[in-house]
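From the shared-data thread, chain only:
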Amino acid sequence: VQLVESGGGLVQPGGSLRLSCAASGFTFSSYVTSWYRQAPGKERELVASISRAGNNINYADSVKGRFTISRDNAKATVYLQMNGLKPEDTAVYYCNVRIGIAIFWGQGTQVTVSS
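Structure, as tokens:
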């Protein structure tokens, strides 16, 4: 199983970024996938999750209305569109999939929101 995130970077408050997570090594369309983030000195937290077919989505209250999770099962990729970014969104963002009792993480991509 491999999860590779991309798309992070430095953006000004109010700006947008689109994160991607390319999956391989398993049947991507069979599993719920999620985005988590971890800010310095804080615990890792769930940002959003999306069901196998993409019809059941959950967001953390802190990102509702600003972030959108989506997936393309044909490309084995999950996305996180982030709009209206705030300094408190600064964190390393991780892609996640749970297969049975095993949990897999990508290496993370840094998002920094600063003027």
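The two ends are 37 Å apart (CA to CA).
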